[in-house]
């Protein structure tokens, strides 16, 4: 004879798994389904009639995994020193790998555009650019930040949210039933499994998440992005996705240029085209940069260009004005801080002209690659013997502080 017994539950705890999650987008605006691990391959344009000057680029498409940094290194090594722009399409992935990729891209001086690459069936190294739904979200934006120029089509989905480390605990729950049976003159109890299931519990790891936020902040600062990009990223809950409007892409400086992805090739010239160094630079005053009021007058820096003393160099000339009156420049310096480059210092070397221009020279290529929205620092320091004077410092876009559009038109 059998009789029902007491049902007991026995839970066995499994190993903990620690992972960075690129969580799905909000329901109202989901990105494409998560792709396969990222592949980075050199591509040559399949456009008819483009030979022998077909466009070339590196296609980076898919999820960023622990192997993707090495994938990027292999792709760059295979170029034999050539610098090709990168076209990226990704829903994100592992944050620390994405940061390392962005740093490597900046070290190599590469440009990035957001677009999908459609490879041909006849040759996996031939392809076309597809801008119907450009996408770079979550950790992908930290790769994008590494580009010297960051070309983003206005219709792109540039998605940001907080990056969170979660500890997931999985527990196996088993339900048993105690069954009593009579065997001869005694009762025997046996435990029989009647059900088994797995239960998971996810807990946010606050300390680890804080460390990731600090790494992201250092990375974005090093890449020269406006702090507003970080603010939007960390203020968007991890279980949602905020897609930036075109004006936000521009204001946060994640985009140095809102243009079709093909604009990434604007700096690439065919062998028959004249190199920038072949063009003579006519001396020209580009305009004035304001530094605010001082003693009731507006402080302005007049920027001019001229031919450099060496091929491929551009001479920058700066005069310091208070209203319309020149300010003594002797022993003063102007320091220009450009993204990913050593500071450029201009000074007045002619002691016979105390109010003469402060001058310096810079590679023409560096100026021609400078995007309008790249964040720079412009600093005017006083004479070293003037302990009471303060430095004037401006931080802003290259368009505002170096008159980038006029500068490129004059020298590129």
Features:
412 residues; alpha+beta; 2-enoyl-CoA Hydratase, Chain A, domain 1; 2 domains; 25 strands; elongated
Structure notes:
- With 412 residues, the chain is of the alpha+beta class.
- The protein has two domains: 17-164 and 206-265, 2-enoyl-CoA Hydratase, Chain A, domain 1 (Alpha-Beta Complex); 276-411, Immunoglobulin-like (Sandwich).
- Helix content is 19%, strand content 38%.
- The strands form five sheets. It has an eight-stranded mixed sheet. Strands 1, 2, 3, 13 and 14 form a five-stranded antiparallel sheet that branches. Strands 17, 18, 19, 20 and 23 form a five-stranded antiparallel sheet that branches.
- A hairpin with a 6-residue loop joins strand 21 and strand 22.
- Helix 1 runs parallel beside helix 2, helix 2 packs parallel to helix 4 and helix 4 runs antiparallel to helix 5 (227-235).
- The protein is elongated, with a radius of gyration of 30 Å.
List the helices and strands and how they pair.
Blueprint: E1 2-3, E2 7-13, E3 17-21, E4 39-45, E5 56-61, H1 68-77, E6 86-89, H2 95-108, E7 112-114, E8 116-119, E9 126-130, E10 135-137, H3 140-144, E11 150-152, E12 157-160, E13 164-183, E14 186-204, H4 206-222, H5 227-235, E15 242-243, H6 246-251, E16 257-258, E17 284-294, E18 297-307, E19 313-322, E20 325-326, E21 333-337, E22 344-347, E23 358-363, H7 364-368, E24 375-381, E25 392-397, H8 398-401, H9 404-411
Parallel strand pairs: 4-9, 5-6, 6-7, 7-11, 10-12, 11-16
Antiparallel strand pairs: 1-13, 2-13, 3-13, 4-5, 8-9, 12-15, 13-14, 17-18, 18-19, 19-20, 19-23, 21-22, 21-24, 24-25
């Amino acid at each position: 004879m059998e009789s029902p017994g007491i049902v007991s539950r026995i839970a066995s705890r499994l190993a903990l798994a620690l992972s960075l999650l690129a969580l799905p987008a909000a329901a109202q605006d989901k990105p494409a389904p998560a792709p396969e691990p990222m592949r980075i391959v050199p591509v040559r344009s399949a456009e008819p009639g483009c030979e022998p000057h077909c466009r070339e680029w590196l296609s980076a498409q898919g999820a960023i995994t622990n192997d993707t940094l090495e994938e990027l290194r292999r792709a760059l090594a295979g170029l034999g020193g050539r610098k090709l722009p990168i076209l990226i399409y990704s829903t994100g992935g592992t944050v620390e790998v994405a940061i390392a990729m962005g740093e490597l891209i900046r070290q190599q001086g590469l440009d990035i555009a957001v677009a999908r690459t459609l490879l041909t069936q006849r040759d996996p190294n031939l392809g076309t650019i597809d801008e119907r739904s450009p996408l770079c979200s979550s950790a992908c934006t930290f790769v994008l930040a590494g580009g010297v120029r960051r070309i983003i089509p206005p219709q792109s989905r540039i998605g940001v949210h907080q990056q969170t480390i979660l500890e997931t605990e999985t527990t196996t729950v088993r339900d048993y039933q105690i069954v009593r049976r009579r065997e001869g003159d005694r009762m025997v109890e046996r435990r029989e499994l009647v059900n088994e299931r797995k239960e998971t519990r996810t807990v946010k790891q606050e300390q680890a998440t804080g460390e990731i936020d600090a790494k992201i902040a250092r990375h974005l600062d090093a890449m020269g992005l406006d702090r507003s990009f970080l603010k939007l990223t960390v203020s968007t809950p991890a279980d949602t996705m905020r897609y930036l409007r075109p004006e936000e892409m521009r204001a946060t400086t994640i985009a140095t240029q809102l243009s079709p992805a093909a604009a990434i090739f604007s700096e690439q010239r065919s062998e028959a085209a004249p190199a920038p160094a072949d063009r003579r630079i006519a001396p020209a005053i580009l305009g004035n940069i304001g530094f605010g009021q001082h003693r009731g007058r507006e402080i302005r820096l007049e920027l001019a260009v001229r031919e450099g003393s060496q091929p491929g160099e551009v001479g920058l000339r700066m005069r310091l004005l208070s209203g319309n009156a020149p300010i003594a420049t002797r022993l003063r310096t102007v320091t220009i801080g450009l993204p990913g480059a050593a500071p450029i210092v201009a000074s007045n070397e002619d002691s016979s002209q105390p109010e003469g221009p402060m001058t310096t020279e810079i590679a023409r290529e560096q100026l021609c690659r400078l995007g309008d929205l790249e964040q720079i620092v412009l600093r005017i320091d006083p004479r070293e013997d003037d302990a009471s004077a303060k430095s004037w410092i401006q931080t802003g876009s290259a368009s505002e502080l170096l008159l980038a559009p006029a500068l490129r038109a004059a020298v590129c």
